[in-house]
Amino acid sequence: MNVAKIIRITFHVLVFGIFAFQMQNSLRKYIDKPVVSQLSKKTIDQITKPIIFICQNAQFNYTKARANGYNYFSHFTTGKVADQEGITWKGKYGNTSFQKLKENIFEYDYSNFFTEVTETVEDSKFKPVDTELMFMIPFGYCRRLYETQVGLLALSTESNVVILVDPYKENNIWIPDIHRGRFEFGPTEIGVETGLIYLVELEIYDLKLHKDETCTDYESMGSSYGECVKKIMADNFLQWYGCLPPWVKDSVGLVCEIDKELKNPNKETKTLIADEFFNLLHGLDVNIFKQCLPQ
What pTM was computed for the model? Predict the structure, then answer.
């Protein structure tokens, strides 16, 4: 075999090897479904701002709750009364309204929260925060700020947590893997003022740039992850109880013991409910919500 033929064969082998290597990398990228990142800048007025919740920690008074028949937070949310087979939100004697039960068991105070109103550069005033009181698992009753505040003055002798929520994920349930934006403040001592400034980094992902089975594009469905979670929660309670617990938002006309009679679930269903809410309150995977994630 002459030298020219050896060189030609060697060259062909080398070219084929390079081609095979490049093809392998291309196939791997195709299988991994690559995403091309595109950076852009928007002003603060052009983006959808996060929803702010202020939740006081340790609201659930276990002593008062057990006196009313609810040994744990999960028992209150599911209506399980100690040493009773039935489900109720009227206490262990069945003679308490949900409103009175809530006021007795949960201890919170949001009276000293103010928002900054800047009239001039040199002059700033504060007014009470415009908020809505909402039930959120696993905290209890939180304040939802209707708009992103310029400044927030909080005077509290209790420990509080501030949660920043994507509007498309808002619901009655705080899920650690989904709602990651949070920080805690307080308690402040009487006569002592402590100022804290938090820098919030907001990342926005446009899923329309890359649609495949790794994402659920709720925008094209006219829905949101938060709406899905609320619907799954409501659908399951309707299946379990035939009505909705009084703490569920937007349950008008379907509230247990007010609008509709409760149906007592069987032992197997009660075990399922207990397991799901134990996982929910401890930051573990909740099976019923997996329907809202990509399949």
Answer: 0.70
